Amino acid sequence: xxxxxxxxxxxxxxxKFLFSAIVSYRFxxxxxxxxxxxxxxxxxxxIVFYYGGTRVIxxxxxxxxxxxxxxxxQGVAPKRIFTRTNRMxxxxxxxxxxxxxxxxxxxxxxxxxxxxxAAKYFRHDRRTLPLMLSSVVIWSxxxxxxxxxxx
Length: 151
Known about the structure:
Helix content is 80%, strand content 0%. It is mainly alpha-helical. The longest helix is centred in the middle third of the chain and has 43 residues, at 31-73.
């Protein structure tokens, strides 16, 4: 395996996990190499975007609190916080939870989006990151096997 091929497959695993296995197979990697590379890329992306997303979300939350306090001090009525969109998000969050996000997200959503959503809504649940990582590894096996038969 050439280093550029490894980096390309890892980057594909981070950015669009669904197609990372086919990228690996196009470089001539075996099934086990594909599983290893896609799982590593997906897990690295999950960790980076989960912790990075937590910091960004906290920065936005503090900014929102400051702006809201400034608006109240100026006598401007604050905007409604609980909108129709927020209700829908809460309904989905309660209906599917962290397990639903872990099961369905890696192949459908990108790893960065899945990780940021998990950081936003489930960062206080200590099961979140292990569930996300194990889901990425399981999906790596499944997608590598699925793409193996299509090449």
